[in-house]
Specification:
It is a single chain. This protein is an alpha/beta fold and 336 residues long. It folds into 2 domains: 1-55 and 90-227 and 308-336, TIM Barrel, CATH 3.20.20; 60-87 and 244-301, no CATH class. The chain is built from 13 helices and 10 strands. The strands form 2 sheets. A 7-stranded parallel sheet has the order 1-2-3-4-5-7-8. A 3-stranded antiparallel sheet has the order 6-10-9, with no helix packed on it. Helix 4 packs parallel to helix 5 (116-124). The chain starts with 6 loop residues before the first helix and ends in a 5-residue tail after the last helix.
Amino acid sequence: MAGANGAELAIAAIRGGALGSLPCALLSADRVIEDSAAVRAAVKGPINLNFFCHRLIDDIDDSAWRSTLAPFYAEYGAGPPTTPPPVRAPFDEAMCEVIEQVRPAVVSFHFGLPSDALLARVRRAGSIILSSATTIAEARWLDERGVDAIIAQGWEAGGHAGRFLPADPAAQMGLIALVPQIVDAVSVPVIAAGGIADGRGIAAALTLGASAVQIGTAYLRTPESLIPRAHRAMLGSEAAEETRFTNLLTGGLARGLTNRLVAELGPINPAAPPFPYASAAASELRKAAEARGLVDFTPVWSGQAARLADELPAQTLTERLTADALARLASGSKIR
């Protein structure tokens, strides 16, 4: 939830009884240390630091993408940036040093795992290690490398699909089929993620064999969320009933709502450079649109269950989700 979740949301979630998480892919090492300290000063409880494990490419050519965006540049009077803005950074030596200093209870990875050497250092720091799998093959791969738990990311999940082994994106499973098959295939606990936004979803995931659930989209409408007002408004409207995977915002496949860029260019465009480089050419367009209160070029990530989420403070939401799920499991009532 990079860009949407910060220390305030993590603090409120921990107060509600959840494992609070900080997304670190858009942060500097110093900022990760600062935010971690802010969480620990405000509340007692475990914290999770999340990192991406993608690979960066030297000398990326985004000329075709800039040409595709040319009509928007002309309309907004905002061309491509003269100096490329920072992109989402993969877990590296500097961030590993942060882990060794901060020693969070949990470290989670997206897009696989870092190098064996860095992973060993994270393990020596005492952190529980999680990573996401979109397929059974990815889950087995993670299990073989000794992760402590696997996040089963279903097709329904908002944001970037954590795919890291070759596979047809169209073949990704929904959560109800993915969770029990991963549970049967691996030796470690499984955490269900994707399409869960209320107590019914939590109870269903646990019934399928998950040991825990990971929830993102339901927290986007909390007052602690950092998303723009226009994104928040879309999540509370019928626009949230339709999400789709797009590569236009970052170059990687990610599920979100339909903004102007997706509507006019179509959700998938071959001119977009690979993740995470597509965002650079549109960065000035994004600034210009957001200055007008628009999210025409802003990632408006959302999972498929957004309409199930209530607009509540994060602590209250966490407590309600937990109470509802536990009541359903205790009573053995039908999930309805």
